[in-house]
Amino acid sequence: MKSSRRRRRLVGASAAAVLAGAGVLVAAPAAVAKANILAIDNVSLHEPGLQVKVTYSCDVDINHQLVARAVKINGTGHDAPYAAGTVKIDKLVCDYRDHTALVNLRPAAVSHFAKGDKLKVTVFYFDDDGFSYAHQKKVVVL
Predict the structure, then answer these.
(1) What span, in angstroms and rounded, lies between the C-alpha atoms of 120 and 60?
(2) What gap in Å lies between CA 83 and CA 49, rounded to an integer?
(3) How are beta strands 82-87 and 99-107 bridged, if at all?
(4) Would you state the pLDDT for residue 131?
(5) Gap between the Cα atoms of 104 and 7, Å rounded
(6) Which residue, among 126, 142, 68, 72, has the nearest Cα to 101 in the 3D structure?
């Protein structure tokens, strides 16, 4: 009887080890899949233009900038007020975890923003080769 108990314990311990190992393998792709994600949290007036609070995550050793752009929706044609700003790669923490960045947007020469303006805000990554990806858009009222 003692040998059958030992076998059951050994089989049970082996099964637990296999399940634990499988759990690690299943969880690993989830961490990688989470990278290079952007979310617009908040947009506010900030001298001389706007400020966008962005939650981001990015791959380790990636070389890109975080770019934000805002356009006034009720503006007309090419004269629609807009502002843009970037966060350089050396200011980003890329370790697959969520982080927050404040992007200061400078308005174009003739652009002006005020409380109550309706804006379309876009954030994205831009790399050295000229590619942009992970675009997120949000319509907000200041």
Answers:
(1) 30
(2) 7
(3) antiparallel
(4) 87
(5) 65
(6) 68
